Amino acid sequence: MYGLADCNNFYASCERVFDPSLVGRPVVVLSNNDGCVIARSNEAKRLGIKMGDPYFQIRDLARRNRVAVFSANFALYGDMSHRVMSLLRRYAPTEVYSIDESFLDFSGMEGIDFDAQGHEIARTVRRYTGIPISLGIAPTKTLAKVASKLCKQYPKLGGCCFMHRPQDIEKVLRRFPIGEVWGVGRRYEKLLTTHGIATAWDFTQLPPQWVQAKMSIVGLRMWKELRGEACIGFEEAPADKKRIATTRTFAHDTADPEEVHRCVAQYAAVCAEKLRHQHSLCGEITVFILTNRYRESAPQHYESRLRKLSVPTDSTLELTQHAAQLLRSIFRTGAAYKRAGVILSDLRPKTGVQTDLFDPTDRLRHDRLMQVMDRMNGMYGRYKIVTAAAGTEFFTMNRNHLSQPYTTDWEHITRVKCTR
DNA sequence: TCTGGGGTCCTAGGACCC
DNA sequence: TCTGGGGTCCTAGGACCC
């Protein structure tokens, strides 16, 4: 049996935990740069605010309806996520699937009262963190996802839905829109509905050969999972990333090569730090730049360039240098850039590296420098120590509605006043 | 004025090798 | 009448996820 614990409207709920006056009020959280809506409380959903809506388009609506608006505070959400996940881990092995979702592996626990246990888990998480969750429990991961969605739809379920008897599953799937199934995106939804498949149940009645032909092996797996055959594995240990990217939209369009250069150097530095964090080296680096696609009258330019490195590295110094050179080779004078990014790929574990006989870089010195830099940044806050290429003028982002780092900074810990 | 960011997996087709 | 065939690696593109 698998569980899927999904935090309800996670970012919005995090903001609410630290400001209870927001309970009952619509809340939205915006992406970097305060660009788009990336989380909404139920009240905000009811106002018709959609995921990905540009903020400027809903600003008036938000104002009229006293919507509480927040800039994304990922430090806070990451920390809250850890708290939730560590509570879940008390009950079963967990596979952290995303910042707000975790699978639980209940195999070997057959015979326990899953319904009671599930409600207990949901209550505990709520009590200890303030975050409401929807826990679906079912024979496969895909069905657990369905059950979790059911919880959200029916608050009466009390945060947990245990779904295991074939007749119950059939009843649920017959009313479950195909487009809401885990693994069915816009394209597959369209394909399936044009073939008369409206619900998850219809899908399970298709011939498997057809499913595989149209939707590849992934579709077939989904088909089996919905029919109760578990075929998506459970991975407790998070796998190393296969690529690491840092990409940002700028606060404003810019044609200034120096400004773009600073940003790209900083993205490369952030990538390198992530890379060292997972103890990997990269064999490839890509830089891309992009003009503002919404400004159609202006000249458009997108270009990306990849460089294979003769010796894999995790050094900020090297990677910022490569990034700068790649950028220079693609930067077009006169174009107003809106967005840039650095992507590291061909990642491999740091142990057992093939070195280059003619390698001019003193890698041991680089390593020691990087260690000191990471340690100091860990102690004194991120990006206190940076390389000259990245500069001290950190890339600017519009974050006009930022909440406090309540749980990650002593200065901002919530004060509780006791009155007798 | 103002439109996010970071990932994964699968498949088809071309290049290349023997 | 009729061009060999099978394997591997790489890349681009498409689909999806949160």
List the helices and strands and how they pair.
Blueprint: E1 2-7, H1 10-17, E2 27-30, E3 37-40, H2 42-46, H3 55-64, E4 68-71, H4 74-88, E5 94-98, E6 101-105, H5 114-129, E7 133-138, H6 141-153, E8 160-162, H7 166-174, H8 186-194, H9 200-204, H10 208-226, E9 244-254, H11 257-277, E10 280-291, E11 302-313, H12 316-330, E12 337-349, H13 363-380
Parallel strand pairs: 2-4, 7-8
Antiparallel strand pairs: 1-6, 1-7, 2-3, 5-6, 9-12, 10-11, 10-12
Helix pairs in contact: 4-5, 11-12
The structure holds a DNA duplex (18 and 18 nucleotides).
Structural features, described:
There is one protein chain. With 420 residues, the chain is α+β, with helices and mostly antiparallel strands. It is 39% helix and 20% strand. The chain contains 13 helices and twelve strands. It has helices at 10-17, 42-46, 55-64, 74-88, 114-129, 141-153, 166-174, 186-194, 200-204, 208-226, 257-277, 316-330, 363-380, and strands at residues 2-7, 27-30, 37-40, 68-71, 94-98, 101-105, 133-138, 160-162, 244-254, 280-291, 302-313, 337-349. The strands form three sheets. Strands 5-6-1-7-8 form a five-stranded mixed β-sheet. A four-stranded antiparallel β-sheet has the order 9-12-10-11. A hairpin with a 6-residue loop joins β2 (27-30) and β3 (37-40). α4 (74-88) runs antiparallel to α5 (114-129) and α11 runs antiparallel to α12 (316-330). The chain binds a DNA duplex (18 and 18 nucleotides) through residues 30-36, 38, 52-57, 59, 72, 97-101, 182-188, 215-218, 241-249, 252, 292-294, 339, 341, 398.
